[in-house]
C-alpha cells in the first residue's frame, strides 16, 4: 500500500475515527510500504457495517471512567490481530507497529484487564456483543441487496456442527475428548452462502471437551443464538441442517414446534428397524442420486422410508430419506453397510420436492467443514487464555 505516511502518521486518531482517508490504493511498486496492509479491508468492513460504532456503544458500561481506549476498539483490534495470524493477546503488537494504519492500539495490560472485566460479567457482555454483531449483519445484508442470503425468497441454510479445539495446557473446562485428544468441543453455526461463498459464522458456543455431540439442549441454544443473528425478516426462512448429532427427539420436536417455522434437514441414525426397512425397499423405488453439480451420479441412489417406519414418536410430517451408494475402492465397510452398499439417512420437514434434490441439499451441509477449517485458520485453533469465561 502506497501513500504519504509522514503526513498520515502525524494525524490524530480517536477511537471513533481511526481509519486512513479513502484514497488508499494497492500497488506493487510504491515507495511507502505498509506492513499488514491487507487488514485495511477488515477495518473498512467494520466501518461500512457499523460494527465498530456498535461495539463502542454496546460496551461502554465496561469502560473505566478515565480510560483512553474504548472497549469496542480494543475488541476489534483483537479480531484483526487474529485474522493476521495472531494466536495470543500479545500479538496485538502487529497492529501497534503500524499506528498510521490502525490508529492507537491498547497496551497488553489494558487488553488483559478488559478481557477480565468482560469475563466477570460474561452473560451481559456476550449479549451486548451479539446485539452489535446482529445489527452489523443486518446492515451488511441490506447493502448487498439481491446478493444477500435468502434474497430470492428461498430458505437460508444454517449448518450446526461440532469440532475439537485442542489445548496443550490445563485450561479451565478443558477435558479429554471423544477423539482421544484434550481440549474443548465447541458447537459452531454457519449460514451457508453456497459453493461460491465462504459461509458466515453466526454463533460459536464454547463447551468442555467432554461435551456430547448429540446434546439436544446445546443444539437448541446454538440454533437460538444463530437465529437471533439473522435479520428479522429472514428468521422465519431458515433451514437448519445438522449431522446425526442433531437427530434427537428433543431437538427435532423443538424445531417443529408450531409457530417456530424452522425447516430442518438432519442426519438420522440407522437403527435395526431402519435397516430392516431398507432391505424391504423395492428395487423400483430407488431413484438416481445427484452429484455436487446436480447431475446424476453413477452408483448412488435415494429412496423414501417414511411410510415404512413407525414415526409416531417423532414430529408430525417428518420424512426419512435414505441414500445408497457403492463405497469407493478401498473404503472400509461399517456394520450398517448392507449388501456391500453404504447407507445414510436424514430426516426433513420439507413436504415436497424430488428426493435427489432434497438429498443433495442435505449433503451440501458438508461445506460447514470448510467453514470450520477457515475459522481455525483465523483464530479458533487456539484459545489463548486460562479462564473459560475469558476464552
Q: What does the model show?
A:
- The structure is a single chain.
- α3 (51-58) crosses α4.
- The longest helix has 23 residues, at 122-144.
- The radius of gyration is 24 Å and the shape is elongated.
- The chain starts with a helix and ends in an 11-residue tail after the last helix.
- β3 and β4 form a beta hairpin.
- A 9-stranded mixed sheet has the order 6-5-1-7-8-12-11-10-9, sandwiched between helices.
- 34% of the residues lie in helices and 16% in strands.
- The chain is built from 13 helices and 12 strands.
- It has 2 domains: 5-124, no CATH class; 149-378, Alpha-Beta Complex (Transposase Inhibitor Protein From Tn5, Chain A, domain 1), CATH 3.90.350.10.
- It has 391 residues and is α+β, with helices and mostly antiparallel strands.
Q: How many separate structural domains?
A: 2
Which residues form runs of ≥5 with pLDDT under 50?
Answer: 1-21
Mean pLDDT across the residues is 86
CATH class category name of the largest domain: Alpha Beta
Please identify the structural class as seen in this structure. Answer: alpha+beta
Q: Note the overall shape.
A: elongated
**How many strand segments?**
12
User: Helix coverage percent of residues?
Assistant: 25-40%
Nearest-angstrom radius of gyration? 24 Å
Give the helices and strands as they follow along the chain: HHHHHHHHEEEEEEHEHEHEEEEHH
Strand order of the largest sheet: 6-5-1-7-8-12-11-10-9
CATH architecture of the largest domain: Alpha-Beta Complex
Strand content: 15-25%
Helical element count?
A: 13
Task: Fill in the CATH topology of the largest domain.
Answer: Transposase Inhibitor Protein From Tn5, Chain A, domain 1
Amino acid at each position: 500500500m502506497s501513500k504519504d505516511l509522514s503526513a498520515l502518521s502525524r494525524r490524530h486518531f480517536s477511537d471513533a475515527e481511526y481509519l486512513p482517508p479513502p484514497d488508499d490504493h494497492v500497488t506493487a511498486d510504491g515507495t511507502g510500504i505498509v506492513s499488514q496492509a491487507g487488514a485495511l479491508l477488515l477495518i473498512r468492513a467494520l466501518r461500512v457495517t457499523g460494527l465498530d460504532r456498535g461495539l463502542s456503544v454496546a460496551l461502554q458500561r465496561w469502560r473505566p471512567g478515565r480510560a483512553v481506549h474504548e472497549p469496542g476498539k480494543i475488541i476489534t483490534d483483537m479480531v484483526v490481530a487474529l485474522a493476521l495470524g495472531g494466536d495470543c493477546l500479545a500479538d496485538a503488537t502487529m497492529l501497534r507497529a503500524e499506528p498510521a494504519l490502525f490508529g492507537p492500539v491498547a497496551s497488553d495490560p489494558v487488553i488483559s484487564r478488559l478481557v477480565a472485566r468482560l469475563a466477570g460479567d460474561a452473560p451481559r457482555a456476550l449479549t451486548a456483543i451479539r446485539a452489535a454483531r446482529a445489527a452489523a449483519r443486518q446492515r451488511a445484508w441490506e447493502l448487498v441487496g439481491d446478493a444477500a442470503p435468502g434474497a430470492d425468497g428461498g430458505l437460508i441454510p444454517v449448518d450446526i456442527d461440532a469440532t475439537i479445539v485442542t489445548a496443550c495446557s490445563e485450561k479451565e473446562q478443558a477435558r479429554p475428548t471423544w477423539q482421544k485428544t484434550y481440549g474443548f468441543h465447541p458447537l459452531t453455526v454457519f449460514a451457508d452462502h453456497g459453493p461460491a461463498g465462504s459461509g458466515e459464522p453466526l454463533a460459536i458456543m464454547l463447551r468442555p471437551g467432554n461435551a456430547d455431540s448429540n446434546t439436544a439442549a446445546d443444539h437448541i441454544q446454538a440454533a437460538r443464538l444463530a437465529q437471533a443473528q439473522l435479520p428479522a425478516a429472514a428468521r422465519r426462512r431458515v433451514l437448519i441442517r445438522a449431522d446425526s448429532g442433531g437427530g434427537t427427539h428433543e431437538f427435532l420436536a423443538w424445531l417443529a414446534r408450531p409457530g417456530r417455522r424452522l425447516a430442518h434437514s438432519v442426519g438420522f441414525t440407522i437403527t435395526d428397524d431402519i435397516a430392516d426397512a431398507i432391505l424391504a425397499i423395492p428395487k423400483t423405488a430407488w431413484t438416481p442420486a445427484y452429484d455436487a453439480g446436480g447431475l446424476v451420479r453413477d452408483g448412488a441412489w435415494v429412496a423414501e422410508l417414511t411410510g415404512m417406519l413407525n414415526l409416531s414418536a417423532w414430529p408430525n410430517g417428518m420424512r426419512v430419506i435414505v441414500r445408497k451408494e457403492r463405497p469407493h475402492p478401498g473404503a472400509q465397510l461399517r456394520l450398517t453397510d448392507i449388501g456391500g452398499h453404504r447407507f445414510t439417512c436424514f430426516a426433513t420437514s420439507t413436504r415436497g420436492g424430488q428426493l435427489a434434490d432434497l438429498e443433495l441439499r442435505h449433503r451440501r451441509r458438508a461445506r460447514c467443514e470448510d467453514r470450520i477449517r477457515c475459522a481455525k485458520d483465523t483464530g479458533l485453533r487456539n484459545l489463548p487464555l486460562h479462564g473459560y469465561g475469558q476464552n
